[in-house]
Amino acid sequence: xxxxxxxxxxxxxxxxxxxxxxxxxxxxxxxxxxxxxxxxxxxxxxxxxxxxxxxxxxxxxxxxxxxxxxxxxxxxxxxxxxxxxxxxxxxxxxxxxxxxxxxxxxxxxxxxxxxxxxxxxxxxxxxxxxxxxxxxxxxxxxxxxxxxxxxxxxxxxxxxxxxxxxxxxxxxxxxxxxxxxxxxxxxxxxxxxxxxxxxxxxxxxxxxxxxxxxxxxx
Length: 218
What we know:
- The protein is of the alpha/beta class.
- It has helices at 15-26, 33-46, 54-61, 91-100, 104-120, 130-134, 148-161, 168-184, 206-216, and strands at 4-8, 29-32, 66-71, 74-79, 82-83, 123-127, 140-145, 197-200.
- The protein has a 5-stranded parallel beta sheet with strand order 2-6-1-7-8, with helices on both faces.
């Protein structure tokens, strides 16, 4: 049985960055569930499907296979054997993933793979409902969060560094709306598990967050 670490939290809290660093420090396998959902979102968008077209999303799931691999130590996401890693972090893909993740067929598509990985390996997994739904018996549970303002500023700075034109106000509005959607969806809404450790990174450095979580692991 694998040793499991679950990190949940809202969009933009730094879950993926922190989980990757903890995985490297502890020698765990990092399972980026958000990237897997984004992989399906890329599939939906490639087929011209809009977020509100639930029927088409359900049908499209039947023709999508998302997998995770590593090249030169870096995680790669594949959609039907095509490497789509560079397409995962657009705003359009993120919004589609947020909406589509509430569709039962989408969740079912990925759940079995995620649970199998956790059973067979020492893993650290991040997402919206890892500790509450996917790995309810995880050895360590973390709820990683930060204020909307902090998360919007981080995303704004990240996009500026890439040379993209963006609006801080629009990013903050989008994050707040995504929070509400994730917390109020009918299936596995975002919430802190009762036995999860709360880590608010608003005023913490990345290294401080990593040290905090590593100290909680075996």
